[in-house]
Amino acid sequence: MRIFGVVVLYEPKSEFLDNAFYLSQFVEKLYLVDNSESRVWGAKQRDFIASSPNVEYIPFGGNKGVAYALNFGAQKAFSEGANWLLTMDQDSAFVENGLPVLVDFAQSCDSKRVGIVSPVHWVSGVLPLPREESVEV
Q1: Across the beta sheet with 84-89, what order do the strands follow?
Q2: Which of 1, 29, 131, 132 has the most neighbouring CB atoms within 10 Å?
Q3: Domain 3-108 class?
Q4: Angstrom distance (rounded) from CA 78 to CA 115
Q5: With contact defined as beta carbons under 8 Å apart, do 99 and 27 qualify?
């Protein structure tokens, strides 16, 4: 089972590094696809990319849109042998142990029969109660 990830960036702040580092621990390869107009990276960002062998930074040098960036990362991942693809925006994150649970569940599925595995999406307000069951849609 090969799980790759794509995070779409746009003028990212340094806080994205914590989330990207967390995600990189659960995927074989993580593509950071940057839609920013300009690349203004500090030493912390450059060091993170240089010290993370499974993270690849892909700058577009301009905003091509979220769909283009996701498709670009997806094509790259599947051409390199991914079975599953984790897609994220730079400001999206998992709560508690949500990502390891999602990864474990995806690994138990037949990737030829299941198209999408998704957590419950929470934007703000009261956090939904955790559930262990899956729902077929």
Answers
A1: 55-59, 29-34, 3-9, 84-89
A2: 29
A3: alpha beta
A4: 14
A5: no
* DSSP per-residue letters across 11-55: S--TTHHHHHHHHHTTSSEEEEEE--SS----HHHHHHHHT-TTE
What tokens does 5 get?
Answer: 């990830």
Give the model confidence (pLDDT) of 13-44 as tens digits: 777 877 888 899 899 999 999 998 876 666 77
Beta bridge partners of 59: 34
- Of 125, 105, 5, the closest CA to residue 58 belongs to 5
Tell me the whole-structure pTM to 2 decimals. Answer: 0.82
Residue 10 near residue 37, CB atoms below 8 Å: no
Q: Please give the single-letter amino acid code of residue 80.
A: E
Per residue in 89-117, pLDDT tens? 888 887 777 888 888 888 887 777 887 87
Domain ranges of the chain: 3-108
